[in-house]
C-alpha cells in the first residue's frame, strides 16, 4: 500500500510517503524546497520536485471539522493560502527576509513577473487583492469546510499526477502521538503514554494517549479557550489559551519570531532567574490534572497583553523574562506528568511530540523530575510530524503491517544528492571554489580538519526530516576550542552569541562525559556534563552546564561514526559540535547548489559533499 501523509498547508507543511510492501519511506518539509523557514504554503512544490506514483491514499494530519474553537481548516484558510502562493509567485522570495520587500522592490518584482507571464500575473494580482478572501468564501458558500479543503487538496495532488482513492483526515494530536509511538523503541514492546503539546490543533493544545501495539486510548485533553480582548493589546490570531501560545507571547515580547525563535528564549533563560510574581501568576492561572491542562482565561489574560509583556521585559530584563517563562513551562509540564504517572502507575514509558517537545531543557526536567526515565522525543516533533502519524493511522486502519517503521529510528528520510547534480553545481561556482574528489573515505580528511580547528560542512546520504541536523547536513567544529562557538555564531550562523550548539558524541563516550543520561540519538534533550569536562569541551556546553547531544553508534550512520572515531584518535574526545548546515534565516541545505551557495556566503573553511572536498579559491 502506498500512502502519503501530509501537513498539507500551514505552519511546517510537509509530506511523508510510505510504501508498506517495499518498506520504503520518504519525507520532506516544504521549507527545505522553498528555503523559507517554517513555510506555510502547501506541498505542491514538493510534488513538483519528487514524483509519487500509484498512491492509494492521501491523509491529512488535521481533521476535526466539527469540534473546534475556530477553523483550523476551511474556506478562509484555503483562500489565505491561495493569496500567499499568488504573492510568492509575483515576488519570488529566496529566503524569509524577501517576503517583506520595500515598495520599490515589490513593484519591480510585479513588473518583471508581468513581462515574463502577463496573463498569469494578472490572475495573481487579482488573488492578492484585499477582497479576494471574501469573494472566495462567497463563491464556496453552501459547501462544508471539509468539502472545500478536500476539493482543493485533490486539485493540487491531481495536477501533479497523484490521484488517490480517497483523501482522509485524522485528528491533529492523534497524528502527532501516533507518529511518535510507532517510531519509538517502545512500539509493540509495552504500554506507553504518548503526550502531545503545541500551539493548537483541532480544538486542543495537547492530548495524551495510551498506546498498546495497534490499539490506543485517549486519556487526557488540554482544550484551547479564547481570551477576552477587552482592554488589552492582543494579537487576534494568537488569543487562544495554550502553553505553546503563551511561550510564543514571551518570544514576541522579546522582539523574536513566534513559532521559530522559541529556542532563543530557552537559551537566554539560562542567563537569568525567574521573576517570582510573574511565575506565580501564571501557575495560579493554570489548571493541571491527570485529565489535562487548562487555563482560567481571565487570570491568564495579562500574559496575552502585548503592552503588559513589553513593560515586563523592561522591568525585569530579557534574561529574567526568559527564565520566567522557561521555569513556568518546566514546572507546569512536570506537574502534569507527575499526575499522569500517579494515575497510570504501571506505565513508565513516555513519547513526546508537538512543537513544545522541541524544548530541550523541559525534556531534561521530565527525565530528571518524573518517573518517566524511558523517554522518546519524536525527531520531527513540530507540525511536520503530523504527516507521519496520519499516514501510519491509515495504514493501521486498513490492516497494513507497520511494525517495521521504527527500524528507521534515524530520520534520514529526505533526498540524496546525485553525482551529476553535485558536479553541475561545482561547475556553476567554479570561479569561486576549487574542488577535489577524495572518495569514500572523505571523513578521514574532514576529521583531520576538525581536529585542526577548522569549521567544516558535510553533506552526505539522505537529508534529515525534522529540525535537527544529525550528521548528514551539518556544520562541524572542534569543541575543545573555547573560541569556536563564538566564531560560528558571529561569522557563520550570524545569530546571537548566547545560543548554544549541540554536540555529536560517540555512544561509548556517554557515561564518561555525562552525569546521567540514556542513549538518545536526536538532539532533543539536554544532559548535565560532568564538571571535570567543562573546560575540556567548553564550546559544546551551555552556561547551565548542559549539552544537547546526539549519541552516535556505527549502525546509526557509519561514515559519521568513523569521522567521530577519527576525531577521538586526534583530540582525545569523540565529540564534535554539530549545527545544521544553513545560514541564519535560511533552512537546511536541500540541493547541491544550496550547499555551495551557503558555503560561499559564510566563513566555513571546507565543504565535504559526497566525497568531494570544496575550498574557496
From TrEMBL:
InterPro entries: ATPase_NBD, Carbam_trans_C, Carbam_trans_C_sf, Carbtransf_dom, NodU/CmcH_Carbamoyltrnsfr. Signal peptide: none annotated. Residues 2-392 form the Carbamoyltransferase domain. It holds the Pfam family Carbam_trans_C. Residues 447-615 form the Carbamoyltransferase C-terminal domain. Transmembrane segments: none annotated. Belongs to the NodU/CmcH family. This is Carbamoyltransferase. It comes from Hydrogenimonas cancrithermarum.
